[in-house]
C-alpha cells in the first residue's frame, strides 16, 4: 500500500472512513446484502456443513503434501505445453511477467480480477515497462479509472456510488454519462470488448489449479475470465502456491461452497477450467500459457503460526460479517487485503510489524470464523499476532508496562483489593449515583461516548465476606 | 531468478518443521472413473424427466430461458423467433459435427446469415475473420456437453468446430441439448470429469466452461445488471428426441 | 436420584468490581434451587484480558492461580460467557506447558456459564418469577460462538411469567466491546454500539438482557449516555427480579 496512506495512523484512517457518508451507506447496504445472500444459500443447503469440513480437510491435506502436489501440477502444465515460473517475491513475479510481456511484444494486457496481481503491484510495473494494463472486471475497471485499490476482496468498487462511477466514466469518455447501472454496464461492455479483441496479453489469477490435470480454474460472473484466456495470444496466470488442489474431485467440493460463501449463488456464472495453450484446431485460446507460482511469504507460513490462513478461498465472507470492516470499509486497513483475513495475509506477506495496529482491529467476536467456508480460526491467529507484537516489543512500551502491572495485580489478591479501594477513591470527583460519565486522560477513551459503572461501594467479595444474609 | 529446485526445496524445508495441524486427507477419487461414470449415466437414463425438471427450475432461477421441442427439426423455428424478436441478423454456430446435426440451411431459411465454425485447423487471417464474425454476431448457437440440474449449469468443452467464442461473444447464447447431457449434481460432474481426464483430456480443447446463466455483475451499488462481457441472455432448447440417434 | 449439586461462584473481575448485584442474584437463585453456593476467597480474574492482548505468559500465571483456587469445586458457575470460554477453551492449552494440563482440563469440564448451568446441569427451565414488559436478548459472542449457546438464556427468559420476549434484530452481532478494543479503537467500538442500540430501541423493549459483564458494561454505558428508557440487565438480575 502507498506510504502516504500508511503515514496516517490506523485509528485516524478508521475515523475518516466513518465520517464518509457515502461509504457508510454503501458498506451497510453491501455487507447486509451479502450476509443475507450467504445465509439463504446455506439454509437451502443441508450438505453445506459437511462440505465445509471436507473443504477444510482437503486444504490441510494438500499443505501436508504441498511439494508433491506442486510437482504434479508443474509436470502436467508442462505436458500440456505451458511454462511454469517460480517467484519468491513480488518483485520477482513482476519481473517474470514484464519479461514475458516484452518477449512476446505485448503492448496491452487485459486483466481478469486477481488479488494476487494487486498484491504484487503488477500494474505499475507493466506501465513502467511501457505496457498498458487494462482491468476488465467492472469493479476493478472502475477503481483503475479512479486510481484506487480494491476495497473488498470480491467487490472492489463497493465503496463507490453510481454517481461517482458515472463521473469517472464521463471523465474517461469526455462526455456526460447517466448514473444508471444498466447504462454504465453497457458502456463498460463496449469499451472493454474492444480491448479484449485487441490485447496481446491476458493476465489472470487462479482460484484453483488442479494438480492431476494441470488445469487452472477461474471463477467469474462477468465473463472477463473467459475473454482474457481465450482471445489474447499469451495467457499468464499468477497464483499463490497454496491454491493447488490435488484432483478434479477435490475441486468439486470447493466449487460447491465457494460462490455460496461469496455471493450466495450456487455457482458463479462462469467457472472455467483452462489447461494450457490451445489445442490444434481450436479457434481461440492462447498460443502460450505461463503459470507464475508465487511465494511472497506464503511458504514460510507452512511451518508458521499463520498456516491455517493458507486455506483461504478469497471469498470475502469474513469481511461482510466483521463488525470492524462494516464500519470502516477496506481502504482504512491500508493494505492489499482488507478485513479479518486481510490482517492475517498482511502479516504473512509483510511481517508482524505491518500489523501492530491492525492485529487489534478486531473485537474477536468470531463471526469471521463462523462464516469462513473452510473454518479458518481467524481470532486465534489474531491473538497470536498480538502476542508476537508484544513479545518482539513492537507494542508501545507504556502498553506493555500497563499489562505487566495488570498481571501482577491479578496474581495478588491483596494488590487487587488495594486497586479496587484506590479506584473508589479516585473516581469520587467523577461518579454520580454509581455512574461515571467523564474521566481524565486515557480513561476518557471510554467515557467520551459511554458511561462507566462506578467501582461498587462494596465489591461482591467484600459483601460475601461481611453480609450475614449472603453467607450460607 | 528462482529455479524450480530452489522453490520446491524451500517448501520442503518448511514442511519438515511441522506435521501439520490435524490428520487430514484429500477427497477420495473414484477408482474406476469410467465405470462409475457409466453407472451414473445408466441411472440417469431412468430419472431424466425428474432431472430435467430440476434443471429447468435452476436454469430459470439464474435467468436462463428454457425451451422444449420434440425434435431437432423444430429448433430452427425457435431460433428464428428469438432472432425476429431481437431484430437479430447474424448467427454463429458450432460446426454440425459438434452440434449433432446441420441446421444451417433451415436457419438461413428463417432469414439469418449463418456462419458455421469450421471443424479443422484454421490458418492465418482466417482466424481474424472468424473472430470478427463471432464478435459481431447477434446469436451464438452451441451444443451442450453436460447440463447440471443442481445448479442450472451448461458445461461446454472447447475444441475444433466448437469454439469458445460462440457461447461468449454474441449477446444471445442458444444451447441445444437432449436428455443424454443431463446430470444431477456437481459430485456426478466430478466423476465424469475424472473419467474424461483418465481417457486423455478432454482431447478436443483446452477449456471446459461451466456456464450458469447470463453474464452478470453487481459491482455498482450491488445492483444486478446482465451482459457485462459475456452474453446478456442464455437460452437452452431441450430436444426430446435424442440428437445423436 | 443424584445428590445435591454444589456450586462455587467465580464472580469474575468485572462482576466483582462493577456488578456485585449480579453475583448476589446468582447466589439467591441457586439457593432457591437448593444448590449450596460457596465463593472461594481471593478471586481476581480469569486472565482473558491478558490473553486477548497477547500476554500469554502472564495469562498463564493467572490461569494457574485460578485452577488452584477452584481445585475443590464441584461445579464452577460463571456469570460471563467470555470467562467461562477462557477456562473451558484456553486454559488447557495455556497450562499444558506448566504441567497442569490435566488439572486445567478437569476445571474446564466442571466450569459452566450461568445459564448453561441452570438449564443443562440443573435441568431448570422455569424459576417461577414474574416480569412485566417487553424483554429482548443479546447474544454475547463468546457464549454464542465460543460455547455454542444461544438457547439456554432464551429458555430461561421464556419461562418468566408475564414476559413478552421479542427478538432483537442482529442479536448475534457484536456489541463492540472486545475488551481493550473498546479503548484502543473507541470510535469504531462506539459506532458498532450505536448500531446495536438502535436495534435494541427498535424492539420497543424496556429491558435488554445479556450474559456477559463486558457486553453489559458497553451496552449499559451507551444506553445511559443517551438517556434511554431501556435498562440493560444481566440474566440473573432479571430472573431474580421480583424477590427484591
Question: What can you see in these coordinates?
Answer:
The complex is a heterotrimer of chains A (472), B (245) and C (244). Chain A contains 22 helices and 13 strands. Chain A is α/β, with parallel strands linked by helices and 472 residues long. Chain A has a 6-stranded parallel beta sheet, with helices on both faces. In chain A, helix 3 packs across helix 13, helix 4 packs across helix 13 and helix 19 crosses helix 20. The relative contact order of chain A is 0.12. With 245 residues, chain B is an alpha/beta fold. Chain B has a single domain, classed as NagB/RpiA/CoA transferase-like (Rossmann fold, 3-Layer(aba) Sandwich). In chain B, helix 2 crosses helix 7. Chain B is globular and about 70 Å long. Chain C has 2 domains: 115 residues, no CATH class; 114 residues, 3-Layer(aba) Sandwich (Rossmann fold). Helix content of chain C is 52%, strand content 14%. Chain C has 13 helices and 8 strands. In chain C, the strands form 2 sheets. Chain C has a 4-stranded parallel beta sheet, sandwiched between helices. In chain C, helix 4 packs across helix 5 and helix 11 crosses helix 12. Chains in contact: A-B, A-C. At the A-B interface, helix 3, helix 4, helix 5, strand 1 and helix 6 of A face helix 1, helix 6, helix 7, strand 9 and strand 10 of B. Strand 9 of chain A pairs antiparallel with strand 9 of chain B.
Summarize the structure.
The complex is a heterotrimer of chains A (472), B (245) and C (244). In chain A, 51% of the residues lie in helices and 11% in strands.
